[in-house]
């Protein structure tokens, strides 16, 4: 029988702690779990309450040791095959643990899972229709029945309720205690689990109610905004990259991928967030090109293969006409010869396959201003006016060109207006510049022509 050690942290908030523990005992097979509670110096009667419960392991800290260190104390005391970190401001529901354990052992590649909830950041949050505690159970039963057996691949799981194999923690280590108080320690652990080659999954048929930030709201000595800011800087200092770099799923780019595409190459795949979204949507095999070694390692948890390559000058290790779709991130503006790059990639694309490109607009107000200041990384002036010229007519039919707009800073807008006025004084027209100044990205979906179409075009 697989045993799960449930680790709960407390810091005051006695009423919520009682509610959490009682929900565990009501909705969990107690023969399959042990409950470990670490109290971080509560002064509201929590310690006396915990001392009365003989069925739990209790650890009492004299002061608030923070989330990461207290969780690690619980981990040291745990004897289970699995470790479940659970906030004390949660309410678990009927059959909450079983689906997570089933998913965790569905595949050896899965190292960590989490449930869905009413209050959590990212894709674990789902809309709910209950308005009080009494309505949680009815909602949970119906929702989880509709989602039975379903899961979602992600690059991040939130630490309010986190189930992980003990052997995985033995391999990657426990929470990093440099993240004081609580925030970013779960992001950090998620990346280390991915870096070790394991996958993260959300069990869509497990629901846990989360009051959210109760420790902070109930303890005025703690500042969530200060802790968040400090830990964010610690995260960036450790990983040498902003956290948002890992989790951008590029939904506007992946929206153009045909649902029937089975083999997909993503050039500039980053940490693989876009790939996980594709895997959640359709059955496919992913290949990636990413030159950052850290991002490449993390993406490899979900991609069949991720290589480092210069797509402009290197032959890629794939057969001709291998891919149903090829995605290109923000590469073409920095390419020495973007048209040649697009021609070369056609070799690896099946006839009628999709080439989908995200292309920054050089005429976007902020980009154009950076260009004037010699601060731009763009080597080509690609705009909505000339973007179609990158796709040779003998190779591709352009299915669509769409654009994304973004606001620009008022002083840059004013500068461009003045520059357009001055140009007019000298008989020069910059109307096209102001026309496209609000567009920051263009998305081009091109279809590779079949052989007979190519011969006609040539």
Task: Outline the secondary-structure elements.
Elements lengths: L3 E7 L3 H14 L5 E7 L6 H6 L4 E5 L6 H11 L4 E6 L2 E3 L4 H8 L5 E7 L19 H11 L4 E4 L6 E5 H7 L12 H11 L3 E12 L3 H4 L6 H16 L4 H4 L3 H4 L8 E5 L5 H9 L3 E5 L3 H7 L5 E3 L15 E6 L9 H8 L3 E12 L4 H8 L23 E10 L4 H16 L5 H6 L2 E10 L2 H7 L1
Helix pairs in contact: 7-13
GO molecular function: S-adenosylmethionine-dependent methyltransferase activity
Protein name: Glycosyltransferase
InterPro entries: Glyco_trans_2-like (IPR001173), Methyltransf_11 (IPR013216), Nucleotide-diphossugar_trans (IPR029044), SAM-dependent_MTases_sf (IPR029063)
Q: What would you say this structure looks like, in words?
A:
The structure is a single chain. With 458 residues, the chain is an alpha/beta fold. It folds into 2 domains: 4-240, Alpha-Beta Complex (Spore Coat Polysaccharide Biosynthesis Protein SpsA, Chain A), CATH 3.90.550.10; 248-457, Vaccinia Virus protein VP39 (Rossmann fold), CATH 3.40.50.150. The protein is 34% helix and 23% strand. It is built from 18 helices and 16 strands. It has helices spanning 14-27, 46-51, 67-77, 97-104, 136-146, 166-172, 185-195, 214-217, 224-239, 244-247, 251-254, 273-281, 293-299, 338-345, 365-372, 410-425, 431-436, 451-457; strands spanning 4-10, 33-39, 56-60, 82-87, 90-92, 110-116, 151-154, 161-165, 199-210, 263-267, 285-289, 305-307, 323-328, 349-360, 396-405, 439-448. Strands 1, 2, 3, 4, 5, 6, 7, 8 and 9 form a 9-stranded mixed β-sheet that branches. A 7-stranded mixed β-sheet has the order 12-11-10-13-14-16-15, with helices on both faces. Helix 13 (293-299) links the parallel strand 11 (285-289) and strand 12. The protein is elongated, with a radius of gyration of 26 Å. The relative contact order is 0.09. The mean pLDDT is 89. Pfam families: Glycos_transf_2 (PF00535), Methyltransf_11 (PF08241). InterPro entries: Glyco_trans_2-like (IPR001173), Methyltransf_11 (IPR013216), Nucleotide-diphossugar_trans (IPR029044), SAM-dependent_MTases_sf (IPR029063). This is Glycosyltransferase. GO terms for molecular function: S-adenosylmethionine-dependent methyltransferase activity. Residues 265-357 form the Methyltransferase type domain.
